Amino acid sequence: MGSHRLSCAAALVFSLGLSACSGDDAPKSFPPADYSYLSQLHLNVASINIQDHAEPLPDSLSAKAPTPPDQALKLMATQRLIATGSSGQGDFVITRASIDRSGDNALSGVMDVSLNITDSSGQHTGTAHAQVTRRLDGGDHDPTSRAALYDMTNQMMQDMNVELAFQIRKTMMPWLTDAAGTPLTGAVKEQSLDAPGTTPATIAAPASSPTEPVTAPSTVIAPKASSSAPDAIFPTGDTTDNTGNVTAPAASTGETTAPSPRSPQPGVLKLPGNINPSATPN
């Protein structure tokens, strides 16, 4: 009875050991690659050809991956690059697509692709180039397992989808169209800051007017009021020369000249009343 129990225990330990040794090599199912959920890139060409020029190294692990890197790139190009033109051709070229061992417990991967555009006459008119690299540490797991290779391919494809779209929009904008084939201009449209439905106000510059010189108002001197009666103290009229002879006024020249006051003639000045100028006050 005891020997039977020992044999059963040994069989159980042996089966657990086998499962532990298998580890990452246990059969697993991996979802197939799919990139149809990503935005499509429409090109103004009649067709797009996919060319795989990648040559893996002899010890490459690419073929062991559930989805080899070059196959993932082909699927991505088929689902994302769409021809919407009537002439010209696009060539999607895969130059490198590999996963290799890096050290004892790590993986390194690289993807290198280019998109070339030729017009209807066969003249090369545009190129977009994209390259991504990745490194994956295995940690406690076997880096060469199918699960590790599957993760490595997915990580590189995430990087490639972003990089390729960026490079195409950067260098091949004149060849991009919308789904209906209308070219995308890529120009930044001006946005009005006025309220919707209103016409932007136009501010007219003020009309320039000739500058007139500003003249200070002239000082008007009021003519001195003159009385028609002769001044009793300083009479005007005849002039007297130095000898005491009276001379006639100068002939008129047509200009009005104010008469000049003259000294009174002898005997004109008289004291008022009965005042005697020789009297002496008491």
TrEMBL record:
Annotated keywords: Signal
Q: Where is the segment annotated Disordered? A: 190-282
Membrane-spanning segments: none
First and last residue of the signal peptide: 1-20
Top-level division of the source organism's lineage: Bacteria
Residue stretches of biased makeup (Low complexity): 195-213, 236-245
Name of the protein in its database record: Lipoprotein
